[in-house]
Design a protein that fits this description.
Helices cover about 45% and strands about 25% of the residues. By secondary structure, it is α+β, with helices and mostly antiparallel strands. It has five domains: about 5-185, 2-Layer Sandwich (Beta-Lactamase); about 195-325, Alpha-Beta Plaits (2-Layer Sandwich); about 345-485, 2-Layer Sandwich (Beta-Lactamase); about 490-645, 2-Layer Sandwich (Alpha-Beta Plaits), CATH 3.30.70.270; about 670-910, TIM Barrel (Alpha-Beta Barrel), CATH 3.20.20. Strands 26-27-29-30-31-32-33-34 form an eight-stranded mixed barrel, surrounded by seven helices. α20 runs antiparallel to α21 (about 580-600), α25 (about 720-740) packs parallel to α27 (about 760-770) and α31 (about 845-860) crosses α32. The longest helix is centred in the first third of the chain and has 33 residues, at about 155-185. The two termini are about 40 Å apart.
């Protein structure tokens, strides 16, 4: 377009020209004003190579290319320009804030003034551009730009762009509204999780799944919470459960399909891993009082039928709900069917002929209606209450009939009830608990113990209730509570015959009250996922039975065992000698190991043990069991040795566990807190920067976390393949841009054994290099020695494939292990990096200096270049130079630096 042609649509005519185009667009059959169409119109109007819109995300501090039009023969850049660092274009942001356009008539003019912008633009083939801000409600939301226009009258172009930008403001707002409608169609408004529509849509992909695990979750207490506490509290419960599910199933989608129902679908998941996640969810729900029930199912039967599997999971859930509502909550003594919730329903439990007796009792004794209703809300099968000053009590008919009392009004009921307690230790606990109520002026009472009914049948019960005191809290006035039966499963595990967790709480509380000394250790069993999957659950249960029987026989008089949940166990040792704990730990491991061998189950460490030592007086039973859980988590990672309890260890463990959850979330949600930095590598002769090593960094709570901490967590959670791919793309992008200044500049990137196991990595690397059109020889892959002998064939194949793609190979940490020379001969590395530990040896001994010089010479004889890491002093620099190394990396020259600082350094070195 000539200047004369362009003048036809500039200034006063531009509005009419645009208006006509808009009208013509809306007159089409679809009657739709499309952003892409307007981008094309603008590109052809200005005869440029590319038009584009970038939108700003102020939360992430990034900007991304969201819309683009390219002329024929021009490569798209949109996918390569996502989540760019907003600080890169600070000078543009300042110009936009002053209502100024950005005009670059010749890109070489900014090569030294803003090297980071130059490095981004140059690889795109840009030699000139114009960018105009896009505002929405007086806030800068992005910018509109064109590349390489044929028209060089930039004043006229900016006039065009400023007018078109106003139209784009409207279009972007309209587009976002459409996206919001679409988002709401597939997302729950309260939790932001996916909804039933999204679940139905996802089920359409079932043909590509090899396995499927489904979890159906029900918020069993939501209806009661809404009715009794209000819908706000109900919403809090929903959100809390939603977050809990997402924390456990961090790599899978969560769907809220109705008010109290969530579903998690896990395509292509292994059964053992799926079962472990479900167990974690159930334990987390119990620990966080979420009142959430689960039903789950897993299948590998082809073809996968997700609807049928969801129905199966629902059936399991309904069965679990039926069991749940038929039981009494052992923690709160709460009747879950809540049939007794008011004075009227309480009267229903009293014979009609005795109703007047109840009213007379209320009239003649102290009675608190608010405490009564508070107690009734907790539920219970056997309600009772009494005037504590008159020691007059009213018991329900079912208490009277079950325990053989002759009337409903009883004097001194607390003392008379004691006759139903058959065991001396329970009777003592009962008396102490009542004494503590008055001694410590408690407002609530709760105790579990054994009683016998009028027929002599022994059962566990929980007695609980509330106490009303006078205003000065000196005189007890009124008690109202319940007695509830606790089923047999509360007492003992049916497989191992060990006592259960709630009995452990009771027994530990008794020990603490009596101030008896005892030692505590815990252990967990390994391999049961594989045992159940390969040998069947009967084999697993039989092994558990034998373990329970063997341990009970061996420690009959010295230790008490409890099965906490799943495969976690607690041992209380009454012998007060500290030395016995380690000895008992050894015996437990030997017994369990022998039984695994007897069952022909080859597991190296079938049992992990944690030792908590003496039970402290100032620790409650619940706190002790919480510590047990943490110690067992630590022990699981170090089964070869006993894990010894310490406050510092547990505090660190819990902090790391929470950090691990946040790390996993960050990976799943787009790596928002990750970034790469680069440590420059210099020539040993000129000391000029010739390359760099890309290093990963992560922030948690706005604090830098050492890679020594977060990388192992990534590896343990199988997240390194995802993170490694992200790092590789950052390295490719950065190297391509730096080559704009120095075509020979190279970047090293690390590849771990965990990444090489990913079968998709090679194809991904090839695609990324093709997208960025990078010279592959500028990318250097660093291999560390760790684990590589585990699968040398896979490693050899991977290295050969990388060489075929044109990448160079570095053998990293050379000299740190025992296999360095073997690695040097076995794998075709171009560069050998001497480990920093050798740098220390060089400064300590002249013989070491000679030895390292020999290593450098040997590497050169094999046509390998040598880079020395860890050079920090001038003396060390002289040594490595004398040794004949080729490149140097260390703090003497540069520490790892941010990407923008690296651009400045490279342009300075190339000036």
């Amino acid at each position: 377009m000539s200047k004369k042609e362009f003048e036809l649509v500039k200034t006063s005519d531009i509005a009419d020209y645009l208006g006509k185009w808009v009208w013509d667009s809306l007159a089409l059959e679809e009657a739709k004003l499309d952003i892409d169409a307007l981008m094309e119109f603008l590109g052809k109007l200005c005869k440029c190579e590319r038009t584009y819109i970038f939108e700003i995300d102020y939360v992430k501090r990034t900007f991304s290319n969201t819309y683009e039009w390219c002329a024929q023969g021009v490569d798209s850049q949109k996918e390569l320009l996502q989540n760019e660092d907003l600080d890169t274009i600070n000078v543009w942001i300042e110009a936009f804030a002053n209502n100024e356009s950005v005009v670059i008539s010749n890109i070489d003019e900014i090569k030294e003034s803003t090297p980071w912008i130059y490095a981004v633009l140059k690889p795109q083939g840009i030699h000139s551009l114009v960018a105009e801000p896009i505002y929405c409600r007086e806030k800068l939301v992005g910018f509109l730009g064109i590349d390489n226009p044929e028209v060089f009258e930039f004043e006229e172009i900016t006039n065009v762009l400023s007018r078109v930008a106003l139209l784009f403001t409207y279009l972007l707002e309209h587009k976002k509204l459409e996206e919001r409608v679409q988002y709401n169609k597939y997302h729950d408004q309260l939790t932001r999780s996916l909804n039933k529509n999204a679940l139905d849509r996802e089920f359409l992909n079932a043909a590509s799944w090899n396995t499927l695990g489904i979890v159906s979750c029900d918020l069993s207490e939501l209806k009661f919470t809404n009715e009794e506490l209000g819908f706000t509290e109900g919403d809090v419960m929903i959100c809390r459960c939603n977050e809990l599910i997402k924390e456990i199933f961090v790599s899978y989608d969560t769907y809220r399909i109705s008010g109290d129902r969530f579903v998690v679908i896990c395509p292509n998941i292994k059964e053992a891993y799926f079962d472990d996640l479900v167990t974690q969810l159930e334990k987390a729900a119990a620990a966080n009082d979420c009142c959430m029930l689960c039903g789950s199912v897993w299948s590998n039967e082809k073809p996968i039928n997700p609807d049928a599997l969801l129905d199966e999971a629902e059936k399991v859930l309904h069965k679990n709900k039926a069991i749940y509502f038929c039981q009494t909550d052992p923690k709160f003594g709460k009747t879950r069917n809540r049939r007794i919730t008011s004075l009227e329903s309480f009267l229903d439990s009293v014979n009609d002929s005795h109703a007047s007796m109840l009213y007379r009792f209320i009239e003649n004794n102290y009675f608190s209606f608010d405490l009564f209703f508070k107690s009734m809300e907790m539920g219970g099968n056997f309600p009772y209450f009494g005037d504590l000053q008159k020691n007059a009590w009213f018991i329900s008919d079912n208490i009277k009939e079950t325990w053989g009392f002759d009337k409903n009004i009883i004097h001194d009921f607390v003392h008379k009830w004691k006759r139903n307690i058959p065991h001396e230790e329970d009777a003592e606990l009962y008396e102490r608990s009542i004494a503590e109520v008055f001694r410590f002026k408690k407002e609530a009472y709760d105790l579990i113990y054994r009683v016998v009914d009028k027929n002599g049948e022994e059962l566990w019960v929980r007695a609980f209730g509330y106490i009303r005191w006078d205003e000065n809290k000196e005189i007890p006035l009124f008690f109202c509570g319940h007695i509830v039966k606790v089923n047999h499963d509360f007492d003992a595990d049916s497989i191992t015959n060990f006592k259960r967790e709630k009995v452990a709480i009771r027994d530990i509380g008794s020990l603490l009250y009596d101030k008896r000394k005892a030692q505590c250790l815990c252990f967990r069993l390994s391999g049961f996922g594989e045992i159940n999957e390969l040998r069947g659950r009967d084999t697993g249960n039989n092994l558990l039975k034998d373990i329970g029987a063997s341990l009970s026989r061996e420690f009959e008089n010295t230790a008490q065992f409890y099965r906490l949940d799943g495969l976690r166990f607690l041992t209380i040792i009454m012998d007060e000698e500290d030395g016995n704990v380690a000895e008992i730990s050894k015996k437990i491991k030997n017994i369990i190991s022998d039984l695994y061998v007897a069952y022909n189950i080859p597991i190296r460490y079938p049992c992990a043990v944690g030792i908590l030592g003496e039970i402290k007086e100032n620790v409650s039973p619940i706190e002790l069991l919480t510590d047990v859980s943490s110690v067992l988590d630590i022990a699981k990672t170090k089964p070869e040795t006993d894990t010894i309890y310490s406050v510092g260890t547990l505090t660190l463990h819990r902090a790391q566990k929470h950090m691990g959850l946040e790390l996993s979330k960050d990976v799943v949600n787009g790596m928002n807190n990750f970034r790469v930095v680069v440590q420059p590598i210099v020539s040993s002769t000129t000391h000029k920067v010739v390359g760099g090593e890309v290093l990963l960094r992560w922030k948690y709570l706005n604090q830098e976390v050492s890679p020594m901490v977060f990388v192992p967590i990534l590896e343990d959670n199988d997240l390194m393949p995802v993170v490694g791919k992200w790092v590789f793309e950052q390295a490719v992008k950065l190297c391509k841009r730096l080559n704009s200044y120095d075509p020979n500049f190279f970047l090293d990137f690390n590849v771990s054994y965990h990444q090489i196991k990913d079968e998709t990595l090679l194809a991904y690397m090839g695609n990324i290099m093709s997208e960025y059109n990078i010279t592959s020889s500028r990318l250097v892959m660093e291999l560390t020695e760790t684990h590589y002998n585990d699968d040398p064939i896979k490693l050899q194949k991977f290295i050969n494939s990388c060489k075929t793609m044109g990448m160079k190979i570095v053998l990293d940490d050379f000299g740190a292990g025992y296999s360095s020379l073997e690695m040097l001969l076995k794998y075709p590395a171009h560069v050998v990096k001497l480990d920093r530990s050798l740098m220390k040896k060089m400064s300590d001994s002249s013989d070491s200096n000679i030895f390292i010089s020999t290593i450098v010479s040997a590497c050169h004889n094999f046509n390998k270049l040598v880079c020395v890491e860890g050079v920090e002093t001038e003396t060390e620099l002289k040594m490595v130079t004398q040794a004949g190394c080729d490149t140097i990396q260390g703090f003497y020259f540069y520490k790892p630096m941010e990407v923008l600082d690296l651009y400045d350094l490279v342009i300075k070195d190339n000036s």
